[in-house]
Amino acid sequence: MARDLTRIEARDEPEGEEAPLLDAALRARGVEPEWALWDDPEVDWNRFELVVVRSTWDYAERWPEFLRWAETRPRIENP
User: Fold this and answer.
1) What is each CA distance from 35 to 4, 43, 64, 70, in whole angstroms?
2) What pLDDT is stored for residue 65 in this prediction?
3) How far is Cα 37 from Cα 25, in angstroms, rounded to an integer?
4) What's the CA gap between 12 and 59, in Å, rounded?
5) Where is pLDDT greater, at 18 or 66?
6) What pLDDT score was predicted for residue 15?
7) What share of the chain is helix, strand, coil (3-state, %, to 5)?
8) How far is it, in rounded angstroms, from Cα 72 to Cα 66?
9) Upper half-sphere CA count for residue 50 (Cβ side, 13 Å)
10) Is 47 helix (H, G, I), strand (E, B) or coil?
11) Order of strands across the sheet with 48-53?
């Protein structure tokens, strides 16, 4: 399994201004960050050791679907 960290991003707010700082800090520790949308069917979620939810602006409207998605992740955090 890759030592990658995926952060879930809102569709209308790509990365954010703090992303380069966080990405650099993680890379310095040997972790390769990757941005992804939680509902992107092309993402292979099984390759990540950890999924960190940053923001999901549409999860309130899609709560049951989001919960089903979150329950299938081996390790998910929302700091």
Assistant:
1) 11, 10, 23, 16
2) 92
3) 22
4) 13
5) 66
6) 58
7) 30, 25, 45
8) 10
9) 12
10) helix
11) 32-36, 2-8, 48-53, 76-77
Q: Using CA atoms, how far apart are residues 12 and 71, in angstroms rounded to an integer?
A: 24
Tokens representing 12 are 């209308």
Give the total residue count for the chain: 79
Burial 30-65 (b: 16+ CB within 10 A, else e): eeebeebebeeeebeeeebeebbbbbbebbeeeeee
pLDDT at 11 over 60: no
In the numeric block, which tokens belong to residue 63? Answer: 């709560």
Q: Looking at this protein, which amino acid is placed at residue 6? A: T
pLDDT at 6: 54
Token digits for 33? 């960050």
Side chain identity, residue 10 = A
Q: Which residue has the tokens 């972790």?
A: 31
